[in-house]
Amino acid sequence: MPLKIRIGSRPSKLALAQASIVRDRLIAQIPGVEIEIIEIRTSGDKITSASLANIGGKGLFIKELEQALYDRSIDAAVHSMKDLPAVLPPQFRVAAVLERENTSDILVTRDGSTLSAQPAGTRLGTSSSRRRFQALRMNRGLLIEPLRGNVDTRLARVADGSFDAIIIAMAGVKRLGRIRDVKFVELDARDFIPAGGQGALAIETLADRGADELDRALSAINYPRTFYETAAERSFLAAIDASCTTPVGVRASIDGDALALAAMLFSPDGARELSQSISDPIATNLAPSAGETSGKRLADKMLSRGAGALLGK
Fold first, then answer.
1. Active site residue 83
2. What separation, in Å, do the N-terminal and C-terminal C-alpha atoms of the chain show?
3. Measuring CA to CA, how many Å separate 264 from each of 113, 123, 137, 164, 275?
4. E-strand stretches of the chain
5. What are 278's strand-pairing partners?
6. Are 3 and 213 in contact (CB under 8 A)?
7. What's the longest Cα–Cα distance across the chain?
8. Which structural domains are found in the chain, ordered by start?
9. How far apart, in whole angstroms, are the C-alpha atoms of residue 225 and residue 229?
10. 24, 45, 71, 83: which is the annotated catalytic residue?
């Protein structure tokens, strides 16, 4: 009998596109495998009118998928890495991370103009407090308004005039093949440090599923460089006790034999900010635990400079 694998995915076009990427990678590793993508509507998909911060945060996009894993009705779940909490419950693990897409945020407008060129009163859509405060650092005249919905919905809000501009992750627009459909400016990563895990795809499984053909295939499609980088980012977020409402960006990138790690943190009202960067030699085997050590070191530096007080902790 051929091996059958069930992959859980949210039902959005982007989530299904991402699950299809994972499916195709696994098919290339396991001859004759049968893979079914099972659509699971999460609480975050069902509740579209409220701020995530007010209804439970990023975990709303994964809890039903994790329940399906726990019930063994799926074998693996595919997530945008930035949707995962920094610390998973012990019964789950990130089994593989695929090669990272571009991590940048982009400014989408109807004319492709820059952020600094937007006139006072420009209606800019984002529900991310990080993006809100980063944008206001560059242009105090912006009128920031909440924006939720899938990628197509967000892009349509610019096209129909509901918003003058939006800030959105480039990765999702590229994975949907929409990047040529919009006029955008890639935002400078020095001013717009992205969310931890942005641009990465994570494959989650039960921690105790043991070594089997799926586990071996996941190991084969894992991209150690991205796993290392995101392990550093997630370790930093865990060490500062960041939540889904914390206005923080963190980006790790391997450059030669070093890991560059930078973070930008705002107070809840955006009035104060704190930035820090470090560079560490990378482990020769790219063990994620070494990335985690770097993330913790960056967190310790920021906490020693008052990051806890900045967050009101």
1. yes
2. 55
3. 25, 24, 12, 26, 4
4. 4-9, 34-39, 76-80, 92-97, 105-109, 123-125, 143-145, 165-169, 183-186, 201-206, 248-255, 258-266, 273-281
5. 261
6. yes
7. 64
8. 1-98+200-222 (3.40.190.10), 105-186 (3.40.190.10), 223-305 (3.30.160.40)
9. 6
10. 83
Q: How far is it, in rounded angstroms, from Cα 27 to Cα 41?
A: 25
- What are the tokens at 163? 């918003």
Q: Is 31 exposed, middle or buried (0-12, 13-18, 19+ CB in 10 A)?
A: exposed
d(CA 136, CA 191): 11
| CA nearest to 167, candidates 212, 205, 115, 222 | 115
* β-strands 143-145, 123-125 pairing: parallel
Mean pLDDT, consecutive 10-residue stretches, the chain (313 aa), reads 89 96 96 95 63 57 92 96 93 97 97 97 96 97 93 95 97 96 96 97 92 91 97 98 92 95 96 96 93 97 95 81
DSSP state for residue 81 in the 8-state scheme? G
* pTM attached to this predicted model: 0.93
